[in-house]
Amino acid sequence: MEFKYLTLSKDGNVGILTINRPEALNALNRSVLQELDAALDELANDKDVYVIVLTGEGKAFVAGADIAEMKDMTPEEAKEFAETGSRVFRKLETIDKPVIAAVNGYALGGGCELAMACDIIIAGEQAKFGQPEVGLGITPGFGGTQRLPRIVGTKIAKEMIFTGGTITAQEAQRIGLVNKIVPPNTSLQTAIEMAKTIASKGQVAVRNSKRAIDQGIETDIDEGVKVENQLFAKCFESVDQKEGMTAFIEKRKPNFKN
Ligand code: HXC
C-alpha cells in the first residue's frame, strides 16, 4: 500500500516504520492513524519481518495528536478519535512480534502514548517525554492514563499527567519509561541493532515470551505462571527448540528456521 504519512522499509528481518510528517512534528491526525492501522496489518502479515522498529522523521518522534484537527471536535467526534487511536495502539501493543520505539526527539501526548505501546524504547539524549494534555484542557486520550501508571507507578504518572511537565530522556530512563539512552541521532541505528539481535533468536520463543509477559502482567502470579508454563511447553512443538538445544550440545551456532 502507498502511504502519504508513513514510510515502510526493511533491513534483513527488521521492518522499519517511520512516521513522516515532519512539518507538523509527526502529529497524529486521522489519516496518520488510518495509515498506521494499515501498516501494522502489513507488518503483521509479513512472514519475513520478525521485529519492528517504529520511529519519527526529523526532530520529533511524535509531538502528539493533531491539535488543529482536534480543536473543533464535538464530544462525539472526540470519542471516536480517541477510540480509533486506542484501537490502533492496542493493535501495535499486541502485535505478535517485538516492537522497538526509536525516539529521536519529542514524544509528547499521543507521541508518548505511542512509544509506551511499544515493547522497548530507545531514546536519543535529546529526547523529551511528557503528557502535556491538561495544558490543552483535555486528559490523555490514547491510553496515557492507563499505560503510564502501569510502567512508572501511579505517583509519578499522576505528577507527570497533572503538571503536564516534560521530562528529559535521562529522567525517563530513571523512572523506567526508557530502556536505553544513546547519543543524539543514533536511536534508530541502535534500535535496528537491537532488533537484529532479537531477530537472530528463535522467533517462536521470542513471540511466546512477549505473550507470557503481556498476558501474565494483567493477571495474578498463579495465573501468570500457568500462562508461562503453557507457552514454554508450546516451544517444544517448534523446530527451533530442537535446533537451539542440539546446537548447544554440538557446540555450534543454531540455525533457526522459525
Ligand atoms: C498539530 C503540531 C503539534 C501537534 C507541533 N505542531 N505539535 N501541530 N498538533 N500536536 C506543529 C506546529 O503547530 C508547527 O506548525 C510545527 O508543528 C512545528 O512546531 P513548533 O511548535 O513551531 O516547534 P517548536 O517551537 O520546536 O516546539 C516543539 C514543541 C511544540 C514543544 C513540541 O510544537 C508543542 O508544544 N507541540 C504540542 C505538544 C502537545 O501539546 N502535545 C499533546 C497534544 S494532545 P507551523 O505550521 O506553525 O509550522 C494529545 C492528545 C492525545 O496528544 C489523545 C487524543 C485522543
UniProtKB/TrEMBL annotation:
Q: How does it assemble?
A: Homotetramer.
Q: Does the keyword Transferase apply?
A: no
Q: Name one GO biological process term.
A: fatty acid beta-oxidation
- List the InterPro entries hit by this protein, alphabetically: ClpP/crotonase-like_dom_sf, Enoyl-CoA_hyd/isom_CS, Enoyl-CoA_hydra/iso, Enoyl-CoA_hydra_C
Gene3D superfamilies to which the protein is assigned, alphabetical: 2-enoyl-CoA Hydratase, Chain A, domain 1, Lyase 2-enoyl-coa Hydratase, Chain A, domain 2
Pfam families assigned? ECH_1
The GO terms describing molecular function are:
3-hydroxyacyl-CoA dehydratase activity
Q: Which reaction does it catalyse?
A: a short-chain (3S)-3-hydroxyacyl-CoA = a short-chain (2E)-enoyl-CoA + H2O
Tell me which SUPFAM superfamilies the record gives: ClpP/crotonase (SSF52096)
Q: What is this protein called?
A: short-chain-enoyl-CoA hydratase
- Per UniProt, the enzyme's principal EC class comes to lyase
The entry's family comment says: Belongs to the enoyl-CoA hydratase/isomerase family.
Query: Would you say which domain of life the source belongs to?
Result: Bacteria
- Tell me the PANTHER family matching this sequence: ENOYL-COA HYDRATASE, MITOCHONDRIAL, ENOYL-COA HYDRATASE-RELATED
Name the source organism.
Lutispora thermophila DSM 19022
Q: Which Enzyme Commission numbers does its entry carry?
A: 4.2.1.150
Which pathway does UniProt place it in? Lipid metabolism; butanoate metabolism
The record's keywords, sorted A to Z, are: Lyase
Q: Which NCBIfam families match?
A: PRK05809.1
